[in-house]
User: Fold this.
Amino acid sequence: MDDPLALLFLTGAATLRVATPLILCAMGGLFSERSGIIDVGLEGKMLMAAFFAAAVAAVTHSAWWGVAAGIAAAEVLALLHGLACITYRGNQVVSGVAINIIAAGLTIVWGNAWFQRGGQTPALEGGERLLPLFFPRAGDNILVYVALVAVPLTWWIVTRTRFGLRLRAVGEMPLAVDTAGISVPWLRYRAVLICGLFTGLAGAYIAIAQNAGFSRDMTAGQGFIALAAVIFGKWRPFPALGACLMFGLLDAVAIRLQGVRMPGLGEVPVQLIQALPYLLTVFLLAGFIGRAVAPKAIGVPYEKEH
Amino acid sequence: MKAVRRPLPGPLPVWADIILLPLVNVALAFVTVGIIVRIIGVDPLHALELLVVGALGSPESIGYTLYYATNFIFTGLAVAVAFHAGLFNIGGEGQAYLGGLGCGLAILALDRYLPAWAMIPIAIATAALFGAAWAAVPAWLQAWRGSHIVITTIMFNFVAAALMVYLMVNVLIAPGSMTPQSRNFEPSSFLPAMHGTALNLSLALSLACCFAVWVFLWHTPWGYALRSMGHNPEAAVYAGTDLRRMTMLAMCISGALAGFVGVNELMGVHHRIVLDFPAGYGFAGIAVALMGRNHPLGIVLAALLFGALQQGGAELAFDIPTITREMVVVIQGLVILFSGALVQLPRPWLQALFSPRRPS
Assistant:
C-alpha cells in the first residue's frame, strides 16, 4: 500500500469501479434526453434492474441470466416511461418520479415475498456474479469494459450516424423531423429503449458485479448523480464521462479521507464531498461555471397537427 | 402541466372530466396494486379488509391514520401551491428536513427559557422559515439564473440529507449519545397529543393551512396572479405580474408548508431532532396533490386515504408477513403514474362511453 504506484493504481481502479454504473446510466440518460425525453427515472430503472439481476442470478445460478433479467426489467420501465411521455404525452418529470417510487417499493415488496429476507436477495457467489477478468484486486469485470466502450460508441452514434442526427434533431425541433416524414414517436421510443438497455446494465453491475446481491435502495441516488453527470457534461458523451469519473473519484477519495486531517483545512466532512456532485451541478446549471444548455424540445410532448 | 390539459376532440361532460376521470385513474392504480398483491400470493380482498380494520378499527388506529394524514396534507399542499404557479417542486423531502432542523434549533436554543405559549409559535415559525429558505434558493436560481427548478430541487434533497447527517453526527448530537440524535426537547415545546397515539395539534395546523391556501389562491390578488402565471406566463406578464417575484413567493410558501412536516414529527412525536424523519413524505406529496387535483379539499381527502394506507399498511404487514410496509410506497408510485403521467389514458374509453348520446 505504501508504494505510490500501487496506491495510484488502486485509487484509479476504485474510481472506475464507482464510476462504471454512473457511466452506463449517464449514456442511457444522454440518449433519452437528446431525444427530448427528460429522464429523472434513471434511479428507478437501475434499482429495478439491480433487483431482477440479483434475483434471477440467485435462482438460475448464472450471472448472464441475471444481466439479461436486469436489462429486461429496466426495459419494462423504459417502455412505461415511453408510453406515458410519448404516446400519452404526459408530464415527463411526473412519470420519472412515479417510476422511481414504484421501483423503490416493488423491489422490496417482491424481494420480501420471494426470498423472505426483508427485501434482500440471497448472497451471490462464484458464477452467479460477474468476476474480474484480468486484475482480481481491481474488480475489472466485463461491464467495466462495456462502460468504457459505451462512451465512444455513444459519441459515434449520436454524432456520426443518420440515427444520431435524427435523434438530435428530434430533441431540438421535432416539427422539422416530422415534416421530413420521419416518425417522432418511433425515434423517441428507440431512444428510451436504448436508455433502458444502459440503465439495465448499470443496475446489473451494481447488484451482481460490484456487490454480491440486492439490498434495499442499493442504488442510493446514483441515478441522480448520473443525471447530474449528463447535465454536467452538457449532454455530450465524453464530457459526461469526465463528470462520471470526477464524481467517482470524489467518492473514492471521500472513503479514504474519512477522519483524515488535511493540512491547512482541518478535517474535511465526508458529507461535503458526498454532496459535491449535486452542489457542482447546481452551480453549473446556475451558470456560475460555464453554461449548460439543454436540448430545446426537452420535456415538451410532441403533438402532431391534426 | 400544460401538456396534460390539451384539448381533445369530443370533450367529456364537465362533471366527468372533474370527478369521473380522476376516480378512474385512482381506480386503475388500485386495480394494479390488487394484481401485484395477487402475484405475491395474497388474496387482495382479504388484504383490503385487514388494511381497513388496521386503519380505522380502533380509536388508536384512527389517531395514527390522522397523524400520517397530517404529513400528507402538508406536503400535498406544498406541491399543489407550486403546481398552481406552473412550478414542479420535487424538493419537499429536503424542505421538510430543513423545516425540522429549523424548529429543532429554535427549541434547543430557547426551550429552557420560554413557556409553551411562546415556544410553540416561535418553533413553528422557524420551521416555516427554514423550509421556505431551502425552497427559496432553487426558486431564486430559476428566476434569476435560469436553472431548472426540477433539477435543482432534486439536487437540494440530497444536499439537505448530507447537511443533516453532518450536523447530527458532528454538531447537534447529544453528549454521550451513540445514535445521531439531539438532546430531548423540554416539555414546553411539546404539542398536545392524543393519548396513546402520535396524533397531535399539527393536524389543526394542517387544516388551517388548507383554509389559508384556499383563501390565498382563490381570494387574493396574489393568488390570482400566481395561478395566472401557472396557466399562461406571457398573459401574466402582460397583466403586470412580476414572474420572478411570483416564483419566489410560490416556492417560499411551498417550502414553508413542507417544513411543517418537521413540526408534526419533531414537536409532536419524536421530541428531539432525529435523522430521516421526512421518510418519503415529500415525494408522496406529489401523489396527494395529483390525486386531490391540487385543491385543498381534494388534498385533505387524498391525505386521509394515504394516511389510512400508511397506518393500515403497517398493520397489514404485521398480520401477513409476505406483505411489507413498502406496499404503500408502491401504491403512492402507481397513483402518481396513473393520476399524473398517464392521466389521459382512460379518456378515450370514457369518450367512447359518452359519445353514443351525442352523435357528432
